[in-house]
């Protein structure tokens, strides 16, 4: 009898131990599943972090390359501005010489009377105006002696007034360039031409074809660079041209 009670007690104790083990096993299983879920979540987050780091690294490299490119462009741009200022000084010298040489002098009609009435050298839109302004890309102060007029492909530039051609050739900073002497100190300049139709010494009439407009890279579209000068000093062309 005692042995039977002992076996019953032992069996009950083992049953309780088994139940506790099952309970502990269930808790362990839940913790294991929770840990696996946390591990999977961690791996996903790790992948996202690695992806973000890679994206950030690529973006930093892209910005470094962009910054280097902008610095190079700005340096090139500033060099071009210096060259343009030097070219402008040489331009004034050419104009002064044309005034001094009898062969280059032109006694035409009074150019001043046509202020605000001159025909446009080419039909288009003023993309870059005359005067002082800041370059939108580099925030650099710039003074333009003339205007850039964007126009269509194969556009033909025409003289704004009768005169004598005193220069018709390539000129550093202006590309293919034509300078027309209108008499009494007035000159008009037609730069960035793809092709020149005239020669130095030609006498031309108002609205006669000067050349074909080219592409400069300064504007995205084909454009004519146009100036008006009086005794070498640049004037605002927009004040001299009539309505289109």
From TrEMBL:
Ranges for the M23ase beta-sheet core domain? 144-237
* Protein name in UniProt: M23ase beta-sheet core domain-containing protein
Quote the InterPro entries the UniProt record gives: Cell_wall_metabolism_enzyme (IPR050570), Dup_hybrid_motif (IPR011055), M23ase_b-sheet_dom (IPR016047)
Where does the signal peptide begin and end? Answer: none
Q: Provide a Gene Ontology MF annotation, just one.
A: metalloendopeptidase activity
**One Pfam family from the record:** Peptidase_M23
Which chain positions lie within coiled-coil regions? 18-101
- Native species of this protein? marine sediment metagenome
User: Keywords on this record?
Assistant: Coiled coil, Signal
